[in-house]
Write a structure and sequence with these properties.
The structure is a single chain. This protein is of the alpha/beta class and 278 residues long. The chain has a single domain, classed as 3-Layer(aba) Sandwich (UDP-N-acetylmuramoyl-L-alanine:D-glutamate ligase), CATH 3.40.1190. The chain is 52% helix and 14% strand. It contains eleven helices and nine strands. The chain has a nine-stranded mixed beta sheet with strand order 2-1-3-4-5-6-7-8-9, sandwiched between helices.
């Protein structure tokens, strides 16, 4: 099997370089995203005002675009920040929250993917499928896997994610019980994580912000995305292992941040359940 040393390298690079990540994210999870970035050794900035975002993005290294709570002003801000990030060669991550659930979300996500040099798309399978059907960049991807990635459909799911990545020209990270992260020619399965991550709001949003930090700190976008996904999943396992009988989702949320805060590159390399798929 190939070396997974890049997991440690990427995590260590985030701590060593403290990338500034501009998050235009949703107001349900903005505080969680900020704290997750701080826990991992990165630094957050949040601004969605169109007159402000160009200046803010200019001092950053990564940009996280999350469409979870859309309004026309924030959409305008996403495009303005994305164009500036593109000029500067910054890593841009798109989280197409709820794509497929409403026309505005689907159109906004596909518009961002079509206009901007997105480096990583990170979403669940239903969101990525909706994006694949709507975007000019990805239209024509014809595999239609189930929304839940399982051991039974893993090969088909990975082929689908690779085909979306190829057409979109970026890395695509589909997270679920088994995560699949792929570029046009390589795919990884990641089996870290805890079901409790689905019992708090913001686990996916936090991961997208982290992915922007990893992509800003580590040049290989595929490796960066795999490392970020494994990092969050492993932190979820560590957090779940701390749960006492009186603990609930509030404690889990705190333990998750603590696990990210305390996780070293060596810890990640040791705990990651990452497999490159043939």
């Amino acid at each position: 099997p190939m070396s997974l040393e890049f997991l440690k390298d990427a995590a260590d690079a985030v701590r060593a370089t403290t990338p500034l990540v501009h998050c235009i994210t949703n107001y349900v999870t903005v505080n969680d995203c900020a704290n997750a970035l701080l826990a991992a050794g990165a630094s957050p900035i949040m601004s969605d005002e169109p007159d402000d975002v160009v200046g803010i993005t200019s001092i950053c290294g990564g940009l996280d675009l999350n469409i979870g709570t859309l309004n026309h002003r924030s959409i305008e801000g996403m495009h303005a920040a994305g164009r500036r990030a593109a000029e500067l060669g910054h890593a841009v991550v798109l989280d197409p929250v709820g794509a497929g659930a409403s026309a505005l979300r689907t159109a906004t996500a596909s518009g961002l993917l079509d206009e901007l040099p997105i480096r990583v798309v990170r979403g669940n399978m239903s969101e990525v499928k909706a994006l694949a059907g709507a975007s000019a960049s990805t239209r024509g991807v014809d595999v239609n896997p189930a929304d839940a990635v399982s051991e039974d459909n893993l090969a088909q799911s990975a082929a689908f994610v690779r085909s979306v990545a190829e057409r979109a020209g970026c890395v695509v990270a589909v997270t679920g019980a088994i995560d699949v992260v792929a570029s046009a020619d390589r795919a990884f399965a990641i089996r870290n994580g805890s079901p409790l991550q689905g019992r708090i709001t913001g686990a996916g949003c936090m991961l997208s912000a982290l992915t922007a930090a990893y992509a800003a700190a580590h040049a290989d976008a595929l490796e960066a995305a795999v490392a970020a996904v494994a990092s969050m999943g492993f932190a979820g396992q560590v957090a779940a292992g701390r749960m006492g009988k009186l603990d609930g989702n509030g404690s889990f949320r705190t333990y998750l941040l603590d696990a990210l805060f305390n996780q070293t590159g060596d810890d990640l390399l040791e705990g990651a359940l990452v497999e490159e798929l043939g």
